[in-house]
Amino acid sequence: MPKVGIIYNDIKPVATTAAQKLSKQLKARGYEVLTTTGIAGILGYSQPGKPVCHTPVESLVPPGFDQDMSFAVVFGGDGTVLSAFRQIAPKGIPLLAVNTGHMGFLTEIYLNQLNDAIDQVIAGNCHLEERAMVMVRLFNEGELSWEALCMNELVIQRQPLTSMCHFEVQIGRHAPVDIAADGLIISTPTGSTAYSLSAGGPVIVPGVSVLQLIPICPHSLASRGLVFPDSEPVVVTSANSEPLVMVDDGNAGCYVVPSDRVCFERSPYSAKCIRLRPPDFFRVLREKLGWGLPHIAKPTSVELP
Q1: CATH number at residue 120
Q2: Which pTM was predicted?
């Protein structure tokens, strides 16, 4: 019996209802259906003075979600999609993302397109796009204390009442550099249209094997954004006396103290996105962010005086 997974945002009634309805439809077509919420992929935040809760990335996979699963469907917004990929990427399960949120930059279809989309996926009339993910690990005195998969970006930043941050950053075998800023963003190509874009970083087309480092409000004119190969691991240490905050994809994180080392490298796991037509990143940029749209009407002809 073929197997399909459903992941949904149980805070949104529309997502819950859609998940229940799809489950019944797929079971009627002879599928084994496993459902779960996206909450397991939201790792939460550690607290100052308390041990960091180390959750291995492979342990986030929902029960029954394995290599035998044909595909999975997620109902929610971009946050739920990111959470879902943290749950299923270790098993390489393709994911069809259905937008029941707001922006839905990472989603493929809207709810009213679901029935036709499921028919196409079952018939094999779809495409698979792989997006790179990275592994983030926090080491304290050489011991692994926290880890997570990241699809968009890692942010290390000051707390609200602290002053400017001072970082030492080493990329691959190159000499370490010092950066003074409110924080650092280390982003994947997928995340280049998220926080790093708002912080002045470039848009990077998915499929390009690079990462980017963007200082947040740097203190020096020389501290500009940097794009580098994703084969180069990144190590960040803090030179601040106060703890900093590290956030992974906007919904999970922990504190970083001077004795910590944050290591960031490309993960062997990738996000496998189901596309109903060949991936067209520029179309998504235009539809979601208005990239390349004309701001004024162009004249059809020019009249000479």
Answers
A1: 3.40.50.10330
A2: 0.89
